[in-house]
Amino acid sequence: MKTELIRNFSIIAHIDHGKSTLADRMMEVTGCITEREAKEQLLDSMDLERERGITIKASAVTMSYECEGKTYMLNLIDTPGHVDFHYEVSRSLAACEGALLVVDATQGVEAQTVANAYLAVETGCEIMGVINKVDLPAAQPDVVGEEIEHILGIRKNECFHISAKSGIGVDELLEAVVTLLPPPEDKSDMPPAALIFDSHFDEYRGVICYVRIFEGELKTKQKVRLMGSGRTYVISELGKFTPKMTPVDSLGTGEVGYCIANIKKLADVTIGDTITDDLHPAEKPLSGYQPPMQMVFSDFYPGNNTDYPSLRIAFDKLALNDASFSFYPQSSPALGFGFRCGFLGLLHMEIVQERLERENNIDVIQTAPTVSYEVLTNKGEVIRIESPAALPNPSHIEELREPYVRLEIITGTDSIGGIMKLADSRRCKLVKTDYLSPTRVMMEFKAPLGEIVYDFYDQLKGISRGYATMDYELIGFEKSNLVKIDILVNKTAVDALALIVHRDKAVTRGKRLIIKLRRAIPRHQFEIPLQVAIGGKIIARETIKAFRKDVTAKLYGGDVTRKMKVLKKQKEGKKRMKSVANVQIPQEAFMSILDTGD
Questions:
Q1: Nearest CA among 341, 346, 344 for reference residue 326
Q2: Statement to judge: residues 9 and 148 lie in one domain
Q3: I want to staple 3 with a disulfide (CB 3.0 to 4.6 A). Which of 254, 422, 477, 556 is the partner?
Q4: Regarding beta strands 6-13 and 98-104, do their DSSP bridges make them parallel or antiparallel, or are they unpaired?
Q5: What is the CATH number of the domain that holds 272?
Q6: Structural contact between residues 526 and 543, judged by C-beta atoms closer than 8 angstroms
Q7: Does residue 287 belong to any structural domain of this protein?
Q8: Which residues pair with 385 in a beta bridge?
């Protein structure tokens, strides 16, 4: 197909503003799906996506649209809205020339709306403003239009008013996509260059690569090379998502589809790699993507009824479908062999854990998440550490640096006081305040990531009665007065419970933590001391009392010395047990580190 008849575009928005619903309506209007096939969130194929009502993985669909006697090919990529899946959005935008920025007419511009708009501008996409849910009683399309103009610079009279649920304005929007968004550049006479923007693993067909052709043409039976790895394959099938996988003979410049080339190994495909012809390759690979930066780290160990090899296989499978998390082997004296994993955020971590357990039918034990830190050693080396256990000896540390983020919060003016108090308690500094309207304000803070990554969002929602939204972006690492606190259970340090905290909060946080551990760890037949240590200094202690078995229950009558004799024997047994026994620490104990509240 001629490139001037192709439009590649993405739908971007804050979470819950109607991206997937708009994609559903567009597929219905273009005749991609019949009424019988139609269901809500059609492109959200994962069970988790449907249950939570959110998009986790970007998905693509090709639609045919008739306009002014011409048939256009519309390639739509539906993207996630949550801050943790920012990386998925950036990948999708790199495969597009345009983006529909959807804003809820009842909620207005939210934090992720701003972040995604800036992302689209950086990628060079043409942006069209879309105000959704205009048919709701609480809709204020004119007020929201002014907000869009004030914050994002898109004129309010150029925004399209639609209702994705009822279909109002969707026809006009599709017409505008064809007339206002640019077609891809025509490079059909060049050697083939296709960008892999996503992939997933099929047990029967191997790796299925989602590709966008930037130059030349790909054909079935063609021998191709992955420019990143240098490996060669023969294409067995090319196709498009309509939204079902539909095979085609070739994919030309500007088109989006999938490629199957008998790639059997999970590690052979890198998202962002370029596919080209083996005999007549492209001069240079496409720019690809910045590798994703993991900010939250957690350990995963095999749980009940699960062994280490099956956990390894599960991670391998998941790593192909989700390029934004990393894992490497790790061992712990308390929990055995497992993996240290890096995630983009807490929701991302939660999703990965659920997918691991559901898709592979395994149980995992997960330690409390930590963020990464930088250490400047006495020798002038800068080391990145991803767990408190990896921290060098304090005598070798010149300075300890923690990650800082630019935090943007959009909220109603009545919540400013409570949010300021919360931000102050988490060491956040206010940078600027910008009033979007008389009742809404955008506040920008400089915040330590370790303080906001756990329960900050929940607290924020509580203070603002659910109206505040937040988005954060890493700005770098800065020196901070941090210390490592070790938790000793029965006089043995448990690496998985160690924490790096600000020195001013170390004693309070340590005391609060061992009180929670005392409640979470079940009583044993011997007394268990719980201690908090900074270096060699114990700063707090709690004790889990022994659970005593009634060994005298069977005795009746006779002299009291009979009872004393049995109790003495029990006491000696408990001493021996205490010196050899391991303490059973349940999963809740590891997760209690997360809860920074009382």
A1: 341
A2: yes
A3: 254
A4: parallel
A5: 2.40.30.10
A6: no
A7: no
A8: 373
Tokens 């983009």 -> residue: 344
What secondary structure letter does DSSP report for 168?
B
Q: Is 80 exceeded by the pLDDT of residue 466?
A: no
Burial class (CB in 10 A: 0-12, 13-18, 19+), 557: exposed
Give pLDDT tens digits for 91-141. 677 778 888 888 888 888 887 788 788 888 888 888 888 998 888 888 888
Helix (H, G, I), strand (E, B) or coil at 169: coil
For 268, the enclosing helix (H) or strand (E) is none
- Per-residue model confidence as pLDDT tens digits over 221-245: 889 888 877 888 898 989 888 877 8
Q: d(Cα 260, Cα 246) in Å, to the nearest integer?
A: 12
Q: State both tokens at 198.
A: 């996503």
Q: Are residues 69 and 207 in the same domain?
A: no
Any domain includes 144? yes
Reported in sequence order, the residue ranges of 155-221 that DSSP labels E, i.e. its strands, are: 160-161, 193-202, 206-215, 218-219
* Long-range CB contacts for residues 414-420, cutoff 8 Å, separation at least 24: 415/463, 415/464, 415/465, 415/467, 415/468, 416/441, 416/443, 418/463, 418/464, 419/443, 419/460, 419/463, 419/464, 419/468
Cβ within 8 Å of residue 5, ≥6 positions away = 70, 71, 72, 73, 183
CATH code of the domain covering residue 457: 3.30.70.240
Tokens representing residue 45 in the block: 């194929």
Which range of residues forms the domain containing residue 255? 193-277
Preceding amide of 183 cis, omega within 30: no
Cα-only R_g, the chain? 28
Distance CA 449, CA 428 (A): 10
263 and 201 in a single domain? The answer is: yes
For residues 475 and 446, is the Cβ–Cβ distance under 8 A? Answer: yes
Give Cα 159 distance to the centre of its chain.
30
The pLDDT tens digits for 404-417 are 888 888 888 888 88
Return the DSSP state at 71.
Answer: E
Predicted model pTM: 0.69
Residue type, 504: D
